[in-house]
Q: What sequence folds into this?
């Protein structure tokens, strides 16, 4: 962090002092004012409970409209877009609030508390925190540079996300329980369709606990819960590419006999991705003048949004899923297929022969490899008999031997077919011809710079995680550990929950397994050279596709006989399953062995950079 | 008033608006590639409507087959045959007249059909949306012939395309 | 059928040759590769005429690195010209110095001491190894294998450390000069060099496993850019590009100078192991094998060096006067036959200096070779010819 320069901070020291003073003035002043306003309104609401409706109507309904009516001419006169937009926004808010208060049965206290108490207090606290960071900037930087910061942030982040999700589930269950509680949910009145009203909640939480009622009230609506969950999902997805990129750079460095990022943030450059992100945001917004500007701007989002949408249906554990779709697998495949369009449009709109070449190759490759990918995924679906990912995962909870990859030999081959096809679908080496730097400069994203370019990379890494996630769920035992679930300690206390989460069944295991598959992808990328486009398509149509078809056929026949109607074959199948599990154990130990060997010998593998120099003449 | 009762029309109008806007865009835009992209909007909007009707399988297949397959093919064709990003349509008068006539006739027919149907919805839609298993059973038992005919049709299309695209010698 | 109307915006393909409207397949494009391009080795501009993915014609445009080296030769004395020769083939500076020094010594009849000859051989061969390492690494990088490039540079770092200890520079040495070398080798040079060779030799086998015999690499380079022996000779190829086509011709054996006939080494030629004889893989593999042979030569030379005391430089190397005569002298450089034509006019300053850069002649075959290959093969072919623009443009 001490090395990163933030472009919008004045580099000239004298001007910087003035800027700092102005910033502190604004933040402290604004923060304190907001806090005072919030507290005053809280007092007003407590003192005059009957006048709440009129107070809120005037302050949050009429006043913004008047203010907006005043700002708009001011903005138009000065030609300031910001002021005009602010004016319109104020009129909009005022109208909305007024309409809500007059037309719907909403409790004005709710609106008032939200807009006039919680809002200002939160804004005030945020501004004061920002001011605090500016005042104590040096100390903050020192803190971030400490060795353990990265570890604390990393582990703390994971733990807090898990706790957050768990807390959400707990609170939602609690609210549902309250809703079913007939002693509480007495009246049949509903506001916006929610069974509990503030009044009813207030009977349970009264006096000083009243704010809890306000917090719990919106949580009974599915819409609000979904919005919160979506925020969590999007937050998690945004962190994954950041850290996968950092990890890739470290792994690439180690494979190449060097160290990778080491400086930014202190310990092994953990903040490198943040620094890169800030730099990319501040780059010039360049749009090729002769290309199609609208399409050029649209293309990164066409690539990025489907990759995120795939996470709607991807479960991280039995209850850690945004929407448990019954066609989750098809949905994820559909989303990964729409990414092709973003790439094609990006190449086309750049008005650059090289980009068009890259886009064409890319589209060919991605579309062709969707076929073996889908067909290879059919095998575990047939074995499990469901498209719902949580159902498929449920079959794999009896330990290592029950994972679908060792279920029958065709599943094992299907796993490798799927993994290869998914590498091509994510444009990863050895299939990264569209991005091939040495040949087409940068393929379809040659003309992209700054934030738009980083969106393509976000999409790529998010897609990598999604396909790894699919491979883990369908073949490698989903979020279950190598030990059977029946050995797990049942019980609701903290200790057994932690043991269960870490060893037997939980999102941490899922993320670890996905991480392993990501690591193998990175490993392959930095080891193998690149395949030419005609060889790529040859490999797909003439090698992978017939192989996948054979595997599907074989799996069909296997499943035909592997049931209780053919006891002889069933026992044979059990033996084969045992042997394949053994093969799986051997492969796992081999991979683990490689990784441990590399870690233990990490200094030797750096090479001769650290060795004494020959005494010069 | 349930939250779903007022939320559902909003979402429906949102998706329907996307579909209509994209469809009008296809017709009105003069840039071929943009027309293809508006088609993406239409197909995506229709998929959204399918999700709203709880027909998840249909929506996913719409996205895979149409948006991810057919549309990519169309965009490919459009890009390979247009000679610059700024090629525009300029239909002649007779073509415009013919298109308008056909459009009006189609509109009249559709309007007659739409107004003549009894649109009452069953009081309870299916309690559980049709599962993949049921759809699969139907496809392999009751509707087997159309299923197989469709695959034969696709095979014919592929062979025809390979024949048409063969090198000259 | 609706007519498509082209708006009045500049077109992508100003120079497109179009057939009847609607026939897409014969639309040709002129594609410009370079001069700034990650995979052309240096500032090389190649204009490709392609039909889809197939390349019809490739015209190299050179001259971006021209620095009037030959004209400068007419203004400075030979010992002052040595640094200019460094910068021609900058990856194998010692070999350039050697060629020029040998040419001047042959012209003036200067006698080089025995010890200097042995030192010259050591450094020339070590620089050949370093140059081939870069060639191998960059070739892997072109093919998308990012890692061998860094391994090659790791080994090269140690060679450059040795060079830095001997002459103070890592890239432009000016070490081999008229009459010998500028300074004797440092104290523990022989031991450290032997240590390095022991460390380096097993690495070549590693590179073979990682890159040379890698299935994907072989598929990208075998049967691509085939140059027959006859064609290679007709077009004036030399060095590994010639030997890759099966022609056993190496100036170190044909007319050895500098004591090369006293060393025991083989000349690797391409044998068509992975595809047809004379393809890119053969040329690449010849370089790998040459590295092994160079290691052999250096070992023998190190043994010899310990037993060859004496002067490292002729006394009058700096003040040599060029007779009214001319000479063309070639040696086997890292990239081929590197020759200098020097015409003296009786004074210290030559009348004319011309350098024959092997990469210049090797590059000329580009158009011939890329006919009917795919666009992705062009970097493969150029990488296998291994051009250095400093030599091409001088």
A:
């Amino acid at each position: 962090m001490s090395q990163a320069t933030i472009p919008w901070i004045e580099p000239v020291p004298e001007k910087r002092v003035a800027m700092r003073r102005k910033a502190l003035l604004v933040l402290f002043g604004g923060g304190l004012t907001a806090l005072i306003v919030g507290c005053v309104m809280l007092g007003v609401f407590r003192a005059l409970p009957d006048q709440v409706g009129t107070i809120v109507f005037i302050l949050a309904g009429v006043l913004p409209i008047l203010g907006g009516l005043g700002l708009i001419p001011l903005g138009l006169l000065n030609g300031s877009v910001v002021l005009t937009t602010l004016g319109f926004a104020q009129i909009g808010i005022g109208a909305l609030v007024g309409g809500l208060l007059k037309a719907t049965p909403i409790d004005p206290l709710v609106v008032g508390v939200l807009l006039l108490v919680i809002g200002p207090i939160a804004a005030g606290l945020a501004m004061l925190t920002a001011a605090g960071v500016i005042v104590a900037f040096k100390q903050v930087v020192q803190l971030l540079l400490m060795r353990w910061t990265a570890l604390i942030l990393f582990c703390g982040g994971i733990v807090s996300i898990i706790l957050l999700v768990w807390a959400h589930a707990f609170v939602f269950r609690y609210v549902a329980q309250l809703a079913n509680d007939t002693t509480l949910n007495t009246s049949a009145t509903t506001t916006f369709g929610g069974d509990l009203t503030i009044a009813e909640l207030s009977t349970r939480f009264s006096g000083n606990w009243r704010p809890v009622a306000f917090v719990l009230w919106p949580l009974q609506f599915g819409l609000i819960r979904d919005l919160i969950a979506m925020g969590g999902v999007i937050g998690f997805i945004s962190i994954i590419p950041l850290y996968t990129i950092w990890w890739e750079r470290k792994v690439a460095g180690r494979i190449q006999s060097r160290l990778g990022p080491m400086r930014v943030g202190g310990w092994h450059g953990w903040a490198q991705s943040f620094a890169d992100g800030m730099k990319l945001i501040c780059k010039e917004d360049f749009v090729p003048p002769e290309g199609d500007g609208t399409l050029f701007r649209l293309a990164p989002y066409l690539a990025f949004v489907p990759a995120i949408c795939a996470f709607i249906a991807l479960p991280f554990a039995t209850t850690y899923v945004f929407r448990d779709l019954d066609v989750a697998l098809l949905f994820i495949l559909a989303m990964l297929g729409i990414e092709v369009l973003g790439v094609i449009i990006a190449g086309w709109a750049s008005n650059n022969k090289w980009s068009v070449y890259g886009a064409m190759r890319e589209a060919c490759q991605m579309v062709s490899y969707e076929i073996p990918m889908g067909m290879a995924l059919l095998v575990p679906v047939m074995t499990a008999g469901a498209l719902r990912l949580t159902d498929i995962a449920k079959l794999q909870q009896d330990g290592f031997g029950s994972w679908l990859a060792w279920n029958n030999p065709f599943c094992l081959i299907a796993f490798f077919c799927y993994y290869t096809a998914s590498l091509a679908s994510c444009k990863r080496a050895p299939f990264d011809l569209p991005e091939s730097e040495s040949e087409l400069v940068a393929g379809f994203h040659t003309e992209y710079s700054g934030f738009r370019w980083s969106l393509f990379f976000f999409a790529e890494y998010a897609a990598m995680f999604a396909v790894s996630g699919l491979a883990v769920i369908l073949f490698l035992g989903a979020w279950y550990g190598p030990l059977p679930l029946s050995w797990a300690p049942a019980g609701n206390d903290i200790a057994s929950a932690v043991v269960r989460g870490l060893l037997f069944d939980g999102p941490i295991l899922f993320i670890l397994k996905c991480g392993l598959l990501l690591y193998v992808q990175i490993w392959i990328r930095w080891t193998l050279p690149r395949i030419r486009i005609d060889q790529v398509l040859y490999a797909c149509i003439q090698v992978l596709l017939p192989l996948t078809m054979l595997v599907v056929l074989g799996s069909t026949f296997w499943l035909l006989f592997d049931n209780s109607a053919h006891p002889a074959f069933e026992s044979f199948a059990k033996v084969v399953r045992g042997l394949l599990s053994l093969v799986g154990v051997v492969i796992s130990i081999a991979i683990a062995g490689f990784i441990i060997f590399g870690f233990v010998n990490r200094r030797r593998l750096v090479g001769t950079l650290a060795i004494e120099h020959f005494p010069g003449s | 008033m349930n939250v779903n009762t007022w939320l559902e029309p909003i979402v429906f109008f949102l998706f329907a608006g996307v579909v209509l806007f994209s469809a009008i865009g296809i017709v009105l835009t003069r840039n071929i590639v943009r027309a293809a992209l508006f088609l993406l909007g239409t197909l995506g909007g229709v998929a959204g409507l399918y999700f709203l009707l709880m027909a998840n399988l249909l929506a996913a297949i719409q996205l895979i087959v149409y948006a991810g397959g057919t549309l990519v093919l169309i965009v490919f064709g459009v890009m390979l045959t247009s000679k610059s990003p700024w090629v525009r349509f300029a239909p002649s008068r007779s073509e415009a007249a013919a298109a308008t006539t056909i459009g009006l006739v189609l509109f009249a027919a559709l309007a007659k059909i739409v107004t003549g149907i009894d649109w009452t919805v069953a009081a309870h839609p299916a309690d559980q949306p049709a599962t993949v298993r049921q759809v699969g059973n139907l496809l392999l038992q009751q509707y087997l012939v159309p299923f197989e005919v469709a695959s034969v049709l696709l095979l014919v299309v592929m062979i025809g395309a390979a024949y048409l695209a063969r090198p000259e010698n | 059928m609706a007519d498509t109307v082209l708006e009045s915006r500049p077109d992508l393909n100003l120079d497109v040759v179009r057939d009847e409207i609607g026939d897409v397949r014969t639309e040709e494009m002129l594609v410009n590769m370079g001069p700034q391009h990650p995979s052309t080795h240096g500032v090389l501009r190649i204009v490709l005429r392609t039909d889809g993915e197939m390349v019809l014609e490739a015209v190299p445009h050179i001259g971006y690195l021209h620095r009037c080296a030959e004209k400068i030769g007419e203004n400075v004395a030979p010992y002052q010209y040595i640094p200019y020769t460094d910068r021609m083939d900058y990856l194998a500076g010692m070999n350039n110095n050697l060629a020029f020094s040998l040419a001047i010594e042959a012209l003036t009849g200067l006698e080089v001491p025995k010890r200097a000859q042995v030192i010259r051989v050591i450094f020339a061969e070590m620089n050949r190894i370093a140059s081939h390492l870069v060639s191998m690494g960059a070739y892997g990088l072109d093919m998308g294998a990012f890692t061998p490039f860094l391994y090659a540079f790791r080994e090269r770092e140690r060679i450059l450390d040795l060079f830095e200890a001997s002459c103070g520079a890592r890239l432009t040495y000016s070490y081999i000069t008229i009459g010998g070398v500028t300074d004797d080798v440092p104290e523990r040079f022989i031991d450290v060099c032997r240590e390095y060779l022991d460390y380096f030799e097993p690495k070549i086998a590693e590179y073979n496993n990682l890159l040379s015999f890698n299935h994907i690499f072989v598929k990208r380079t075998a049967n691509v850019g085939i140059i027959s022996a006859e064609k290679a000779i007709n077009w004036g190829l030399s060095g590994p590009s010639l030997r890759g086509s099966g022609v056993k011709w190496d100036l170190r054996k044909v007319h050895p100078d500098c004591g090369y006939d006293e060393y025991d080494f083989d000349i690797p030629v391409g044998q068509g192991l992975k595809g047809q004889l004379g393809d890119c893989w053969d040329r690449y593999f010849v370089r790998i094998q040459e590295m092994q042979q160079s290691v052999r030569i250096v070992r023998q030379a190190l043994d010899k060096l310990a037993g060859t005391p004496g002067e490292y430089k002729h006394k009058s190397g700096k003040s040599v006067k060029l007779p009214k005569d001319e000479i063309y002298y070639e040696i086997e450089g890292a990239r081929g036959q590197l020759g200098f034509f020097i015409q003296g006019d009786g004074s210290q300053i030559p009348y004319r200096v011309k350098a024959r850069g092997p990469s210049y002649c090797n590059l000329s075959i580009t158009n011939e070779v890329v006919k009917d290959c795919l666009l992705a093969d062009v970097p493969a072919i150029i990488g296998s010819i291994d051009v250095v623009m400093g030599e091409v443009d001088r």
Notes: The longest strand of chain C covers residues 54-61. The first helix of chain C runs from residue 69 to 72. Chain C touches chain B at residues 2-7, 9, 11-13, 16, 18, 22, 24 (CB under 8 Å).
